[in-house]
Amino acid sequence: MAPQKADELRSALERVWLNSKPEAMSRVATLIRFAENLRSGTRDEMSRESALLAAHRLSGSLGMFGFNEASSCAAKIEALLGDGRTPDLATMLRLIEHLRMLMEKTPESNGEQERRDS
Amino acid sequence: MPKTVLVIDDDRDIREVAKASLELVGGFMVIVAGSGTHGVAVAQEAKPDAIILDLMMPDMDGRQTLSQLRLLPETKSIPVIMLTAKVQANKQELVSEGAAGLLVKPFDPMQLPNQVCVILGWSVSREDVGRNGSAKG
């Protein structure tokens, strides 16, 4: 691919990510709300469905911006939420915290982006 | 004349990234729709050369949308590539329902145009794209 095209695409991806980040973080907040419900013993199917959708969206989109590890982490959360059983709270909290931390990085500091840039 | 690709996905991020990738790297013309219902209407009107269709959407999902597209005379012969997360992927089933192939989310925006060309048998290479900025076919 011509370097100019790759640069143009990287710039476009950065712009899209800057616009999308607040919504992505709100999806993480949806996951945290679900975990809080889980901790308090509140059975709320809507909360679970919202969390499942949030995890699905995150796993499907984060990798496009170079957040491959975060995308995999979101996919694990999605799998936990989607298997029909009550997810393990400690695992859920650990994964959500890990996801949040990975998303705080800039795409440039993400391993995949670095690989592409090299 | 560049080929036209319609991207149907309810996730704005996916639409925007796919559009940027297919236009900037692939040299395609890209139109987008945020739902299956809207996508079918746009496809009937614009008659794109190919459609990239998300599987999991609210209301009319990807399977239902594909079924509609296969029934309508204006859209029945337009190749449709399904876009899905790994956990849901069942390529054989989707192909038997009329899909041309499958793309897995999250896709690599640098590679997306090439993947589309490979699935559809369009004769474009990354070098071609780099030289003239448009897809041949």
What topology emerges from the helices and strands here?
The complex is a heterodimer of chains A (118) and B (137).
Chain A: H1 3-40, H2 45-61, H3 68-82, H4 89-104, H5 111-117
Helix pairs in contact in A: 1-2, 1-4, 2-3, 3-4
Chain B: E1 4-8, H1 12-25, E2 29-33, H2 36-46, E3 50-54, H3 62-71, E4 80-85, H4 91-96, E5 101-105, H5 112-120, H6 126-132
Parallel strand pairs in B: 1-2, 1-3, 3-4, 4-5
- At the fourth CATH level, what is the homologous superfamily of chain B? Response regulator
CATH architecture label name of chain B: 3-Layer(aba) Sandwich
Largest interface: A-B, 28 and 25 residues
Gyration radius of chain B, rounded: 14 Å
Helix content of chain B: 40-55%
State the end-to-end CA separation of chain B. 10 Å
CATH architecture assignment of chain A: Up-down Bundle
Mean pLDDT of chain A: 87
What is the molecular shape of chain A? Answer: elongated
Q: Taking all residues together, what is the mean pLDDT of chain B?
A: 89
Biggest β-sheet of chain B, characterized?
Answer: 5 strands, parallel
Share in helix of chain A: over 70%
What class would the helix/strand composition of chain A place it in?
mainly alpha
What does this protein look like?
The complex is a heterodimer of chains A (118) and B (137). Chain A has helices at 3-40, 45-61, 68-82, 89-104, 111-117. By secondary structure, chain A is mostly helical. Chain A has one domain (18-117): Four Helix Bundle (Hemerythrin (Met), subunit A) (Up-down Bundle), CATH 1.20.120. Residues 109-118 of chain A have low confidence and may be disordered. Chain B has helices at 12-25, 36-46, 62-71, 91-96, 112-120, 126-132, and strands at residues 4-8, 29-33, 50-54, 80-85, 101-105. Chain B starts with a strand and ends in a 5-residue tail after the last helix. The radius of gyration of chain B is 14 Å and the shape is globular. The longest helix of chain B has 14 residues, at 12-25. Chain B has a 5-stranded parallel β-sheet, sandwiched between helices. Chain B has one domain: Rossmann fold (3-Layer(aba) Sandwich). Chain A binds chain B through residues 1-2, 5-6, 8-9, 12-13, 16, 20, 23-24, 56-57, 59-65, 68, 71, 75, 78-79, 82, 116, and chain B through 11-14, 16-17, 20-21, 24-25, 56, 85-87, 105-110, 126, 129-131, 133.
